[in-house]
Design a protein that fits this description.
single chain, Rossmann fold, disordered C terminus, alpha/beta, six-stranded parallel sheet, 3 domains, 15% strand, 20 helices, globular
Length: 570
């Protein structure tokens, strides 16, 4: 297909709100590929409002599946309406057979999309789908579909836009409900149109929100709560609001998409199930506490590093079921305290609450000097940092810990730190070992450390080839982003320890202190080379034992400084 000849493009957008938001970077990517072409977005009314005045879209064509385009006659009518527009190219982000059939009936010669749902024969340019055994985030899924067209680079975060007029209108509406512009607004989204399995318990939404409001009040801030949701979820919203002492308004079923966007943007944080509003918040720069159960957090987590992703790992998740056939254990395992702590961490950054959480009665306690690393996360490289580096470690039996590593990690663990391995493992992408081999290696690593009371809290690895252009290979931040989202790692309290420049570059990229571990003295020439690579470490040590010693001393100094500031504030 000659891109220069394409003048009129039809884009079939996703049907679900969250999917449509995650597709937004690809809309901008498509515009980059065809800057001179007119772009028409075909979507259902429930999604259309997201893209009003979007810079990548010239026109929105409504697929009125409940009215004008309902039934077989309606589909034929829609195909006829599209035929009149004489599109040169149809790009089908929606994976359904129907999308390919409609554009075929509309006479669009170039029909481009994933070869899914048995529709390959209807696509002039089918794109092979990903290997389902390797989860891929939905943002990347849409982006990768455009790569055969010539799209390069990585997708950015989704972006949505709310006008000043829409913000003012929502501010007036909230003011009539007793919520002023100076209030700290907590948004909660307790429902889910997908099904009951995705819903956290209503009483826990109420209890965690009430605790956050009480903490804000004790800190001299005025809290307010906005409950959002779809039509039919009004009773759920009213039930939760009735248990709150702060001013609240229930907007479930009472907003357009544009109004929903405006009220979400007004929030300091949104506590939500895995739903469309979660992704709207992320695209508007509003941090979320996202509660995941039956859905796959690896493919639909909110984009960005400010968010907290909470989940209770169980053997049956992710099951993707709409209703739980057993005891809903994946959601009941998420506690009120976990959501409260995640929300408090966000509000501390957004609303200036004290770092020591002393305003929450449940959190008032004297700091234990032996637990100086409580709340800290230590990101650890693997090969050359924890274990001997043979080049490509291919067998679990060949894994050998470096001297003193287990003892050093045990010291960090006993001081309260979480230990998270972040490791590039391109041997998988190069075909030198399988994912099963890697799992066995990591199982041995975990077992050896557990024997010394130095259990790891998580292992994140990048299996890709260096030429794949992925977002997880260090020094890219993908693995740390996942830890922030899944473990609520606080990057204000974190260190990166590694033996390579890309470990130090990773630390710089995420804004944390770095420790370079070497097998001997580092000469000035080596430090100059690190500087040229933008990778000057905060500390250079010869062993993991020295790294642990420095981390403990540095954290203690920060705690003393924080205590001094808190005392002067009183």
């Amino acid at each position: 297909m000659a891109r220069g000849r394409v003048q009129h493009i039809l884009v079939r957008g996703p049907n679900w709100l969250g999917d449509a938001v995650m597709c937004e970077p690809s809309l901008r990517g498509l515009r980059r590929l065809f800057p001179q072409a007119s772009m028409t977005l075909l979507v259902k009314p429930s999604v259309a409002g997201l893209f009003e005045s979007h810079p990548a879209v010239d026109r929105i064509f409504l697929y009125d599946d409940k009215g004008r385009h309902a039934g077989l006659a309606g589909k034929w009518r829609l195909a006829g309406d599209l035929r009149q527009q004489r599109f040169d190219l149809a790009v089908l982000f929606q994976n359904a057979f129907e999308a390919a059939l409609l554009t075929t009936l509309a006479g669009i010669r170039c029909r481009y999309g994933y070869a899914t749902d048995g529709r390959s024969f209807l696509l002039s340019e089918p794109v092979a789908t990903h290997d389902r055994r390797t989860p891929i985030h939905q943002i990347e899924y849409y982006w990768d579909m455009l790569k055969p067209l010539g799209l390069t680079g990585l997708p950015g975060q989704p972006e949505l836009f709310v006008s000043l007029g829409e913000e003012r209108s929502m501010a007036e509406r909230l003011n009539r409900a007793g919520i002023t512009t100076s209030d700290v607004v907590i948004g909660i989204n307790p429902g889910s149109t997908y099904g009951g399995a995705k819903r956290w318990l209503p009483d826990r939404f109420a209890d965690s929100t009430q605790r956050l409001c009480r903490t804000l009040s004790d800190a001299g801030r005025k809290p307010a709560v906005v409950v959002i949701g779809a039509k039919g979820e009004e009773p759920l919203g009213r039930e939760i609001a009735s248990r709150l002492s702060a001013p609240s308004v229930v907007l479930s079923g009472a907003t357009t998409i544009r109004e929903l966007m405006a009220v979400i943007k007004r929030c300091a944080a949104l506590i939500t199930n895995d739903t469309g509003p979660m992704h709207i918040a992320s695209a508007l720069g509003v941090p979320v506490v996202g509660i995941f159960g039956p859905t796959d957090w690896r493919t639909t987590s909110p984009s960005g590093t400010e968010h907290a992703l909470l989940r209770h790992p169980v053997d049956c998740a992710p099951c993707m079921l709409r209703e739980c056939p057993i005891d809903h254990r994946c959601m009941t395992g998420v506690t009120v305290d976990e959501v409260y702590q995640a929300g408090l961490s966000i509000l501390s950054r957004r609303s200036g609450l004290s770092c020591d959480h002393r305003h929450d009665p449940a959190q008032r306690a004297t700091v234990d000097p032996t637990r100086v690393l409580d709340g800290y996360t230590i990101f650890l490289d693997r090969d050359g940092t924890l274990n001997e580096d043979p080049g490509f470690l291919r067998s679990a039996s060949d894994l050998k810990l470096l001297p003193g590593v287990a003892t050093a990690l045990a010291r960090l663990k006993s001081a309260g730190a979480r230990l998270v391995v972040v490791t590039n493992q391109s041997g998988v992408g190069r075909g030198l070992l399988t994912l099963r081999d890697l799992e066995a290696i990591h199982a041995r690593l975990e077992g050896l450390l557990e024997q010394s009371d130095a259990a790891l809290d998580a292992i994140y690895f990048c299996p890709h080839h260096p030429d794949d252009g992925c977002r997880c290979r260090k020094p890219a931040t993908g693995m740390v982003d996942r830890a922030v989202s899944e473990l609520q790692a606080d990057l204000r309290r974190a260190y990166v320890v590694g033996d390579h420049a890309n470990d130090i570059q990773l630390a710089k990229a995420v804004g944390v202190k770095s420790i370079l571990v070497t097998s001997g003295q580092v000469d000035q020439q080596a430090l100059t080379m690190l500087g040229a690579a933008g990778a000057i470490p905060d500390m250079v040590v010869q062993s993991m034992a020295e790294a642990a010693e420095w981390i403990l001393a540095d954290a203690a100094a920060q705690a003393a400084q924080c205590k001094s500031v808190s005392t002067s504030e009183r």
